[in-house]
From TrEMBL:
<dbReference type="InterPro" id="IPR002878">
    <property type="entry name" value="ChsH2_C"/>
</dbReference>
<dbReference type="InterPro" id="IPR012340">
    <property type="entry name" value="NA-bd_OB-fold"/>
</dbReference>
<protein>
    <recommendedName>
        <fullName>ChsH2 C-terminal OB-fold domain-containing protein</fullName>
    </recommendedName>
</protein>
<dbReference type="InterPro" id="IPR052513">
    <property type="entry name" value="Thioester_dehydratase-like"/>
</dbReference>
<dbReference type="Pfam" id="PF01796">
    <property type="entry name" value="OB_ChsH2_C"/>
</dbReference>
<feature type="domain" description="ChsH2 C-terminal OB-fold">
    <location>
        <begin position="53"/>
        <end position="114"/>
    </location>
</feature>
Amino acid sequence: MSDTDDVADAGFDEWLDAAETGDAYYLECANGHGSLPPRRVCLDCGATDLEEVGLPERGEIETFTITHVPTPAFEEDAPYATAIANVGPVRITGQVVGIDPEGVETGLEVELEITVSETTGERVIGFRPA
Ligand SMILES: [Zn+2]
């Protein structure tokens, strides 16, 4: 798997680039299942014919957890809420930004925002209340 891992990382970086400029997309199979890059196979049905489709601008938080005592790597970002949001047919995991973690709730409408972790300096998916 080592050489395919590199390709997978590149695919996700490209996706972050696209999302940063408002061109986020997802991969849809013929059965309407959605997933995010890097994917070459539908997780739901195994289809390999995936098409890029524009991601809806808004999603809704399905579930979340608040981290008060993070691992050292995320020390500067604490406390923070990590959420899974339904965006169209895709479930996306990201960090909630622009709101006090106590204010995060299930069903909250959010917009995707690529943000930079204060600790690692790496880009991560963020959800900002819409
Ligand atoms: Zn499928």
